[in-house]
Specification:
Radius of gyration: 34 Å
Oligomer: single chain
Number of strands: 13
Structural class: alpha+beta
Helix content: 40-55%
């Protein structure tokens, strides 16, 4: 820690240089002087005391908080990208639904109208509803998804996601079911055995009136499982994919469908195709892109990141409290130095700059090292997947993270603003400590 005499001698040298320098370099030298004093207070190797310890603790606390914040924000970014990848692997590029109600009538005229839109390659008819599944003695409520034969041509289920059996909906003319890995586990389905078929029960609509005959309240059909897919837990534990005709008979949908799923031609612009389909179909239909199909989910994720950003500000404020007390104690300890500087011509504004610069140095070193450390952890996670997802997914093994420059800039900017605000009070008090009694 520099002594009063050291500061006195260096200040004299500074003042001599200040008088000899040209007017154009005067402002630059004046700005460098507060930095010189603040750096000496913070990084002096000659003397260590309790104030230095507090300053070091302040740097460490700011570094830890900055690292934690950038990691959390990067995790939210990674989760967003992961959701897009997962949903895009199972969901269609464009989905058409009824704007009111659950189902709508589909005929060849409507299909042709959609196929005539530039950019549309495949139109898959879909019936999706809940059913009661039974295999041997095991039972489960599943979501049956009936799809037309061209569903496989959409390449929506990657071949690497088929963990057992084959990716097919018909074999030798007979219908086959693709079941999720979770459904297979719950029902203990054995694909290598044809002794037991998967029995599905669909509830009938009783619009014509109630009946006392339980057999007329549901439809039962049997189908052999042909393959098991594994994409992500929420899909694996619920879905059974069957041919469209099978689902139409099971669920009594006739010519009604719950949606139409579109695959675009290579190079087609999604926004252009979406707008064109909406113009052709009119307001009776909703044309949804990949993100709009899970609008609520993505909205929740964005809100969570927003709350995390607000929490980051609060954490940075908490971390900067150490800087506040460090500057307050430094101002009390340096009353003698402040008096000498004031006697040699340093005004209140210059004294304030010294302590504000001290706070900025602490914040900059802490935030910079914290962001560097956090970025290193994120790089290691990206390369080596140190932390596992802890869930069944064929997409990624490690927890997803994605670093954005905007997040680093956000953390650094918030810390800079908070530091300036919190350093102003100790700096103002320090500028009033100049007194002959302190010599």
């Amino acid at each position: 820690m520099p002594t009063a005499w050291t500061i006195f001698s260096r200040t004299c040298t500074f003042l001599r240089k200040k008088k000899a320098s040209h007017h154009t370099t005067k402002s630059k030298t004046t700005l460098n002087f507060p930095f010189f004093i603040a750096r000496r207070y913070l990084l002096s190797k000659r003397k260590k005391n309790f104030i230095n310890v507090i300053s070091i603790i302040s740097v460490i606390s700011v570094a830890i908080i900055s690292a934690a914040i950038i990691i959390v924000l990067s995790i939210f970014n990674g989760l967003g990208d992961l959701l897009h990848v997962i949903n895009n692997s199972f969901d269609p590029e464009i989905k058409i639904e009824a704007s009111a109600g659950k189902t709508f009538e589909v005929d060849q005229k409507l299909i042709k109208k959609i196929k005539d839109v530039p950019g549309v390659k495949i139109v898959t008819e879909v019936i999706e509803d809940y059913a009661y599944a039974r295999y041997n003695d095991a039972t489960q409520v599943v979501k049956v998804k009936g799809v037309s034969d061209n569903f496989v041509d959409q390449d929506r289920i990657p071949k690497e996601s088929i963990v057992e059996g084959e990716l097919l909906l018909k074999k030798n003319g007979a219908p086959r079911a693709l079941v999720g890995y979770g459904v297979r586990s719950t029902l203990s389905i054995a694909l290598e055995q044809d002794f037991f078929a998967l029995q599905l029960y669909g509830v009938k609509s009783l619009r014509g009136g109630a009946t006392m005959d339980p057999s007329k309240m549901y439809t039962q059909k049997s189908i052999l499982p042909g393959g098991v897919f594994s994409i992500i837990q929420s899909f694996d534990e619920n879905y059974v994919i069957v041919p469209l005709e099978f689902a139409k008979e099971l669920l009594s949908y006739k010519n009604r469908r719950t949606s139409l799923e579109i695959k675009m031609t290579n190079g087609a612009n999604p926004e252009t195709v979406e707008d064109a389909l909406q113009d052709v179909l009119g307001k009776d239909f909703l044309v949804l892109n990949g993100e709009e199909q899970h609008q609520d989910l993505y909205r929740v994720l964005k809100l969570e990141k927003l709350f995390a950003s607000v929490a980051a500000i609060l954490l940075l404020v908490i971390g900067s409290i150490n800087i506040y007390f460090s500057l307050m104690m430094l101002a009390l300890d340096k009353k003698r130095d402040i008096t000498i500087l004031a006697a040699m011509g340093a005004d209140g504004r210059l004294l304030k700059k010294i302590f504000i610069t001290e706070g900025i140095l602490i914040a900059a070193i802490g935030t910079g090292s914290g962001l560097l450390f956090g970025g290193l952890i994120l790089l290691l996670q990206q390369q080596f997947s140190l932390v596992s997802m802890g869930m069944n997914t064929a997409v990624v093994d490690g927890y997803p993270v994605k670093m954005l420059f905007s997040d680093f800039f956000y953390v650094f900017s918030v810390m800079a603003v908070v530091t300036l605000l919190i350093s102003s009070r100790p700096a103002a008090l320090a500028s009033r400590f100049a007194s002959v009694q302190n010599l």
